[in-house]
Design goal:
Alkaline Phosphatase, subunit A, globular, four-stranded antiparallel β-sheet, alpha/beta, 15 helices, single chain, 2 domains
């Protein structure tokens, strides 16, 4: 991968001069992040035939496409906590979804600073916005912070003359289909040119049911409207004269919100689009197939801006002479809302290894969030009636294997678990050792049970929120919390 040696040298020199106070103005690249909620690898450039995504496809065509980019966490707040620090969420103690929301708080470890703070320190104007660029963007970090310490504002145009900016845009993505008003907005933005429901092809582990088919089609509509929003952002940057010397990162925060997607460590939940578009800064028109983790986003951004990367940051450089290829990527799922879990995965070579630390529990434990999705009642009903085939029943099981191993070259849908096959004992042993070393080397705090005081503190927020406006939801949440505690007491 070519990265102009002169440019990176100039950026590093500029950063040194800025830190020393001897340079007041220098042309450093603007950095833009476009981060999309709840969307798997279903854009046109990735081969999805039912979508029309010319804007994202253009970024991929003219930029650098990373084909093996993995989220280190398959749910919003843990992903974003890792993204904004360049650290594994498990290392910084932000691995439980929507934690640090009650009286008990989580503080970042000493020496860990957020990416926006580092940009501000280097003289950048930092912003966070939604797709419109006019409203505050999603943050959702699982630790104590002051927004003003990270962000100067919402509109990047408020930067001073000659001052570079670091702008984040956060898009609703797959969530568009979950809120009626948002979906109506998407349909209008698409001129009601929606995906043909009859043409939808579902993954083999989902049954072809009208509700599930409609939901998947609405998700693909969301992909199309997300592309419209990306086009609007790029056009606004162009009109503002802000595309010159600008690096745009496009990615999603994890996969589609579905039974086997979001919150789980299969490809549907972890494999994300990741594109870097930077004409004049990085040679474009390239496809790179090495493994990267989403925490590399922050490190690459700092590097391209000529900002010193903290030695403790776990993200890796993606460009220039200090590229550090990953031999493997580890991802982690822990508690999601009230639902207690711990799963780890390792993606290396052709294989995916998954370790389930609660094998006596079902994959789909009770979850007020997940059970509220339109596909979940259908799946539970069909399973209870014996109408799901063997593959469709895998994720509905009442217990799960302690280990899973998949050869993705032969089994891209991850439905043939090789963990019990003697022929793969060597690979299984290697993955066990690899994960064990990573847990210790990265200080995976998920190996310790979450304190009851912290769990109760976060649950109190949800219970209070629903006590008046949604009493049924509160009752469901109370029942799920009680079940989690019962199972814990039983050692399940």
């Amino acid at each position: 991968m070519k990265f102009t040696a002169l440019k990176i040298s100039l950026f590093l020199l500029a950063a040194t001069l800025i830190y020393s106070g001897t340079l007041q103005a220098v042309e450093r690249p603007n950095i833009v992040w476009i981060v999309v909620d709840d969307m798997s690898s279903h854009f046109g450039y990735q081969g999805e035939p039912l979508v029309d995504t010319p804007n994202v496809d253009r970024l991929a065509r003219e930029g650098v496409e990373f084909t093996k980019a993995y989220a280190t966490a398959p749910v919003c707040s843990t992903f974003r906590s890792a993204m904004i620090t360049g650290m594994y969420q498990t290392t910084i103690g932000a691995h439980h979804h929507r934690s640090s929301r009650g009286a008990e708080k989580i503080h970042l470890p000493v020496g860990v600073r957020t990416i926006p703070e580092l940009f501000k320190q280097a003289g950048y104007y930092t912003t966070i916005a939604d797709a419109s660029g006019k409203r505050n963007g999603k943050q959702d970090y699982n630790f104590v912070y002051e927004p003003g310490d990270l962000y100067d504002g919402i509109d990047y145009n408020q930067h001073k003359p000659g001052q570079p900016f670091f702008a984040q845009f956060h898009l609703r993505g797959g969530k568009l289909r979950n809120v009626e008003s948002w979906y109506e907005e998407a349909k209008t933005g698409l001129d009601n040119k929606l995906v043909d429901r009859r043409a939808v092809k579902l993954p083999p582990y989902y049954p072809d049911h009208p509700v599930i088919r409609e939901d998947w089609a609405a998700y693909l509509d969301s992909v199309n409207f997300t592309d419209v929003e990306v086009g609007r952002i790029m056009e606004q940057l162009k009109q503002d004269g802000a595309l010159k010397n600008t690096v745009v990162f496009f990615l999603t925060d994890h996969g589609i919100s579905h039974a086997r997607g979001k919150q789980f460590l299969y490809e549907e939940g972890l494999l994300i689009p990741f594109v870097v578009w930077a004409p004049g800064v990085i040679e474009g028109g390239k496809t790179r197939d090495e493994f990267i983790a989403h925490i590399d986003l922050g490190t690459a951004s700092l590097q391209l801006a000529g900002i010193e990367i903290p030695k403790t940051m776990q993200g890796r450089s993606l460009f220039g002479p200090n590229v550090e290829p990953r031999d493997y990527v580890v991802s982690a799922r822990d508690r999601c809302d009230e639902t207690v879990d711990r799963i780890r995965s390792v993606r290396q070579g052709n294989f995916k290894y998954i370790r389930n630390y609660y094998p006596q529990r079902p994959y789909l434990q009770p979850s007020r969030y997940k059970d509220g999705k339109p596909f979940m009642p259908v799946l539970r009903e069909l399973y209870a009636e014996g109408k799901l085939n063997e593959v469709q029943s895998l994720h509905m099981a009442e217990v799960r294997p302690e280990e899973e191993l998949y050869d993705l070259t032969k089994d891209p849908w991850e439905i043939n678990n090789l963990a019990s096959d003697p022929a793969y004992l060597a690979q299984l042993s290697d993955f066990r050792a690899l994960l064990g070393r990573w847990v210790m080397d990265s200080d995976d705090k998920g190996r310790y049970p979450e304190p009851t005081t912290m769990y109760d503190s976060d649950m109190a927020v949800g219970l209070a929120k629903n006590s008046k406006r949604a009493p049924d939801a509160k009752a469901t949440l109370e029942a799920n919390i009680a079940l989690m505690k019962k199972w814990q007491a039983e050692g399940k």
